[in-house]
Amino acid sequence: MSLSRSDFDQYMVPNYAPAAFVPVRGLGSRVWDQEGREYVDLAGGIAVNALGHCHPELVRALVEQGGKLWHVSNVFTNEPALALAEQLVAATFAERVFFCNSGAEANEAALKLARRAAIELHGERKHKVLSAYNSFHGRTFFTVSVGGQAKYSDGFGPRPAGIAHFDFNDLDSLAALIDDDTAAVIIEPILGESGVVPATREFLQGARHLCDKHGAYLIFDEVQSGMGRTGSLYAYMDYGVVPDILTSAKSLGGGFPIGAMLTSSALAKHLVVGTHGTTYGGNPLACAVAGAALVTINTPEVLEGVRQKHQRFVAGLAAINARHPVFAQLRGRGLLIGAELTPAYAGQAREILAQAAQQGLMVLMAGPNVIRLAPSLVIPDADIDEGLARLERAVAAFVAAQG
């Protein structure tokens, strides 16, 4: 059966606009399309493929578990889920774990837990949820309403009540909104979809203080920043600020769909039997692969390697910019890096992505003005250098096309 990009337009709902080429095989940080053309992957499946494509430890875990047990539902528990929960508790502040299938589901669970706990302890008035403008927390109706981007939430009718937004990295803006009726404040330690903007330490510390003052729960959305992406297992560790609830997905499964909500025993007790659930959450296949990913990533060698590779990328991007000045600012942490375009090229990140594909390179956008890199945490230096060389050719072609 011969399938091509045009079949997408014939059969699929048109809510995506995928690239013209169709990847069919990947290994490490290289990908090949239907024509056998090779690409360097600096996109990482949007920060999902934390160990690249077909990492042997993840393949081993999947094949081994695939021959044992695939699915039993949460009418029963299973060993891979129990093992992964134990690993996450041992590695983080958390005492309890809830498994689901995606970052949106993890954030949905976190927000429901925070509201339920606040209401059970203080009454119906304590239900407000605060988040940052330009944040992104998922595509369920609740999470897309909490995310501060009208372009994603408009057009679906009335939104859930009690949601308000503050300016990211602006403690005064948060302080003006938070009060004793606030159930939760949800923050991305690094704004991912809106430009790869790290929070300041002062902002997160101040948010922790305000939540404590008003009896609100602090939720860190680490769907994109977690699982070694910053050079620590989770970004909250870089800041020294511990949330009440943390959400994880993307890199957690190294490419296999899984999400998790991590919290304390005191908070977890508010989700009693029947209050929340998911058919596939804690799936043995997903948990086995995620367990192998966690063991592989959470080592000094890999985490220190992320920090070193960050410096290599930043130096390479700065060198490109010296020859072709298109970037106004480089920012990010670890292997989540954003390169913001200068005003002269504002809004044209997609054009650079198209040029990159022509050069055999996969990169991302983080809004119309930012090129985003989220490669494998173990990408070899040779692939970094080759990827940057291809990016430079793409940037040069882009600049030339501007006339």
Q: Would you tell me which CATH topology of the largest domain applies?
A: Aspartate Aminotransferase, domain 2
Give the overall silhouette: globular
Largest β sheet strand count, sense and barrel closure: 7 strands, mixed
* Total number of beta strands: 17
Gyration radius, rounded: 21 Å
Distance between the termini: 43 Å
* Low confidence ranges: none
How many helices? 15
Q: What's the number of structural domains? A: 2
Which percent range describes the beta-strand content? Answer: 15-25%
Structure description:
It is an enzyme of class 2 (transferase). Homodimer. The protein is α/β, with parallel strands linked by helices and 403 residues long. The chain folds into two domains: 5-54 and 300-401, Aspartate Aminotransferase, domain 1 (Alpha-Beta Complex), CATH 3.90.1150; 57-297, Type I PLP-dependent aspartate aminotransferase-like (Major domain) (Aspartate Aminotransferase, domain 2), CATH 3.40.640. Helix content is 40%, strand content 18%. It has 15 helices and 17 strands. Strands 4-12-11-10-7-5-6 form a seven-stranded mixed sheet, sandwiched between helices. Helix 10 links the parallel strand 10 and strand 11 (245-248). The chain starts with a helix and ends with a helix.
Question: Would you spell out the secondary-structure blueprint of this structure?
Answer:
Blueprint: H1 5-11, E1 23-27, E2 30-33, E3 38-41, H2 44-47, H3 56-66, H4 79-91, E4 96-100, H5 103-122, E5 128-132, H6 141-146, H7 150-153, E6 163-166, H8 171-177, E7 182-187, E8 190-191, E9 197-198, H9 201-214, E10 217-221, H10 236-239, E11 245-248, E12 259-263, H11 265-268, H12 284-297, H13 300-323, E13 327-333, E14 336-341, H14 349-358, E15 361-362, E16 364-365, E17 370-373, H15 381-401
Parallel strand pairs: 3-15, 5-6, 5-7, 7-10, 10-11
Antiparallel strand pairs: 1-2, 2-3, 4-12, 8-9, 11-12, 13-14, 14-17, 16-17
Helix pairs in contact: 3-12, 4-12, 13-15, 14-15
